Amino acid sequence: MTKPDAESPWGNQFGFIHVSVPTRNGLDNNDPLKIISKVKRLIKRKKRSLGVFLTGQLLETMRRFRGPEVAAQYIHSTLKNTSMTISNLIGPKEKMSLADHPVRNFHFMVVGVPQSLTITMVSYMGKLKVAMGTEKGFIDSKLLTTCMEKAFKRIYEASLEGKP
């Protein structure tokens, strides 16, 4: 748990980073690590931008003076103009238990959102869990699963190339 005098705040922290989904035309499709590096640099730059800070401050001010319902309406109105969201949660590094029952694994999903595709990620004990949810009839779930598995495999294999 966070100590009372810690620098990191308690509770949910919201911020938005608007990133266009890259098209295959503008990227080198043969090197998945190159694509990931390019997207990582873009997101890192956007995370450090003033826009993220100002959006967070706007939401906090809205919540404080007009109430959580108004802040939630603002978040929903922003999200309904997007087609996909990615959300993450940093989980504990140590094994945890609930009522003396060890927790082997867990994941989360944001439900009731207006996007066609939602991707959530959580880390727990150094392992990453990725969950995906789609609007009913938006995409063939088996096709999406196959594409994601192939993409993860390509990324993994590319990351091992050149290592002893």
From TrEMBL:
InterPro entries: O-acyltransferase_WSD1-like, O-acyltransferase_WSD1_C. One of its GO terms (cellular component) is plasma membrane. GO terms for biological process: triglyceride biosynthetic process. One of its GO terms (molecular function) is O-acyltransferase activity. Residues 10-155 form the O-acyltransferase WSD1 C-terminal domain. This is O-acyltransferase WSD1 C-terminal domain-containing protein. It comes from Acorus calamus.
